[in-house]
Structure formats: C-alpha cells, structure tokens
Design goal:
The protein is an alpha+beta fold. Helices cover about 50% and strands about 30% of the residues. Helix 1 runs antiparallel to helix 2. Mean pLDDT is about 80; it is low at about 180-185.
C-alpha cells in the first residue's frame, strides 16, 4: 500500500507548531519588556513633567499593534498548525478502518473536516440490502499530491477519522460507470418534453 504520511510529516508538523508557539512567546515577552521599561521610565520622571505623555502614548500604540498582529496570528496560523498536528497524531495512534470500493471522482468543492481543509474522494459501494449503489466519501489531505486514481478503479484504502492514510489500486478500470448513457437518456427525455410543449402551443393557437 502507498502511505500518505510518514514520520517526517509528523516531525515537520510538530516543529512548525513549536516554531509558531515560540514566536508568540518571544513577541509577548518583548511586548511585556517594553511595557515594563516604559513604566519604569515613567516613574523616574518628576511629578507633573510634560514628558510623561510620550511613554504613555507609545505604550498605547505598541499595545494596539501587538493586539492587531498577535490575535490573528494565534487564531489563524497557530490554530491551523495545531489542528493539523493533532490530526497527524490521530493518524499515528487512532483506530483505523480498511475498505474496498470503486473510486468515482474527486470532489472539487472545498470541504471541512475538524476545521481542516480537505479534498473529498467519492467512492461507490454496492449495497446488497438495498440492491443499489451507495456513495461513500472519504477525505484526502490537499497538502499532499492527489493519488493517481481514476474513475472505475477498484481501490483498497485505510482511513483514520475518515482521512485516507493508505491506499492501493487493486484493479484499474474495474467498473465502468454508465454516466454518459444516463446523460443521453436525460437529454432525449428533455427533447421529447420540449416537442410536446411545442405541439401543445400549436394546438392552442389553432
């Protein structure tokens, strides 16, 4: 089977998360140090000194810049990195499920799984109970190259929390979906409906 993830991916995600966290800590320490320095400088000035306004305004400005930068940084960049690292942790330790289905298509629209961007992989599986084809959708990491799977391929794959972590193409073009035939039948039906409407309009005019 082809493994989507390896130990290097887990290590890289961990290192990225740590770098972002340390960046936040250093930025916060620098801000606190600056604020404390301004406070100490302010206490050294004589009472009623006109120069007291400058350090106070400077602290207000720096505080606004810090808040404007650090909150989006932590809420978007660090949070995203942390969720991705958490997902990889589940991949390593979580319960896995193995399935064998026919691949249908990649879903082009953006999906979200646990607030992580994903690509939908649509499979078709035959239900003996309902005697019909049912859709089964798994998720693939968009940061990884999409697998070279085509419509109709019989694929064995392993998922964890519905993320594909391993896959193997058992047979190429094992099933041919009758999509084109259905489209042609639908078009013929539409043409017949249009002809009937035209005839009905002609009879009404007469």
């Amino acid at each position: 089977m082809v493994s989507v993830y390896n130990d290097a991916d887990y290590l890289a995600a961990y290192q990225q998360k740590q770098r972002l966290f340390y960046t936040f800590v250093l930025a916060t320490l620098a801000y606190v140090g600056f604020a404390v320095g301004c406070a100490i400088y302010l206490t050294t000035l004589p009472y009623g000194d006109t120069g007291q306004a400058f350090p106070r305004v400077l602290v207000y400005v720096v505080s606004a810049i810090y808040a404007a930068l650090i909150f989006p940084f932590m809420a978007i960049k660090y949070s995203r990195s942390h969720r991705y690292y958490k997902m990889l942790s589940y991949v390593c330790e979580g319960l896995k499920m193995e399935e064998l289905n026919y691949f249908y298509e990649f879903r082009e629209k953006s999906l979200q799984k646990d607030n992580i961007d994903v690509v939908g992989c649509v499979f078709e599986t035959w239900s003996r109970k309902k005697q019909e084809w049912l859709e089964r959708e798994a998720y693939f990491d968009p940061e990884k190259p999409l697998p070279e799977i085509e419509s109709g391929d019989l694929v064995e794959y392993i998922t964890q929390s519905n993320f594909i972590i391993q896959y193997h193409i058992v047979e190429k073009q094992a099933l041919e979906f009758e999509e084109e035939e259905e489209d042609e039948e639908y078009e013929e039906y539409e043409e017949e409906e249009n002809d009937e409407e035209i005839e009905a309009e002609g009879e009404t005019e007469e």
